[in-house]
Design goal:
This protein has 156 residues and is an all-alpha fold. It has 7 helices and 2 strands; from the N terminus they run H-H-E-E-H-H-H-H-H. Helix 1 runs antiparallel to helix 3.
C-alpha cells in the first residue's frame, strides 16, 4: 500500500524512502530498527509543492488503509502482563532512539530557551528496561527482534 502510493507519484520514491526509513530509524547501539516496514522522507523539493502535498496525503491514507485492518484483526487477542512488559521494553527502545538519535529532539534540546517539556512530550509516559533481556526462542517477542535486526524487502 505504501509502495503503491509512492509509485503513483514517482517510482523512485518507495525504494529511496524505505532505505531512508531503515537507516534513520535505527537504534545503532542495539542493532535494531525502531520498527518494521514504513517509509521516511523529509525536506522534499524535487517537485512542485502541490504535487508533494498530494504525495504526502496519499502516503498518509495508504498507512491508514494498511494499519486499520491490522488493528481489527488483533484487537481481540489476549493481552496479559507479559505483553504489557514487552510493550514497555519496546517503548524504552523508542525513548532511546528519540533521545540519542532523533535529530528533531536533539535540535530542540540544544535550542536556547526551548520548552523542554514540549520537546519531550513524544516520549512514552511509561517505559521499561531489563538487563540483558532475551525473549524465549521463537516467541512473538523473539520473532519481532529478528525482524527489527534484519533489513527486509517487504514488497515485490
Amino acid at each position: 500500500t505504501l509502495k503503491d502510493a509512492c509509485d503513483a507519484h514517482d517510482p523512485s520514491y518507495y525504494p529511496r524512502f524505505k532505505a531512508w526509513c531503515d537507516k534513520y530509524f535505527s537504534n545503532v547501539h542495539r542493532g535494531e530498527t525502531r520498527g518494521i516496514g514504513g517509509i521516511f522522507f523529509d525536506d522534499l523539493d524535487d517537485k512542485e509543492p502541490e504535487q508533494l502535498f498530494r504525495f504526502a496525503y496519499d502516503a498518509g491514507n495508504a498507512f491508514i488503509r494498511a494499519y486499520v485492518p491490522l488493528v481489527a484483526r488483533r484487537m481481540a487477542m489476549p493481552y496479559t502482563q507479559r505483553e504489557r512488559d514487552w510493550q514497555l521494553i519496546r517503548r524504552g527502545h523508542y525513548a532511546e532512539f528519540n533521545l540519542v538519535y532523533d535529530r528533531g529532539t536533539k535540535f530542540g534540546l540544544m535550542t536556547p530557551g526551548a520548552r523542554i517539556e514540549s520537546i519531550l512530550m513524544s516520549l512514552p509516559l511509561a517505559a521499561r528496561w531489563e538487563y540483558m533481556n532475551k525473549p524465549d526462542p521463537d516467541s512473538p517477542e523473539d520473532l519481532l527482534l529478528r525482524a527489527v535486526r534484519t533489513t527486509t524487502t517487504w514488497t515485490k
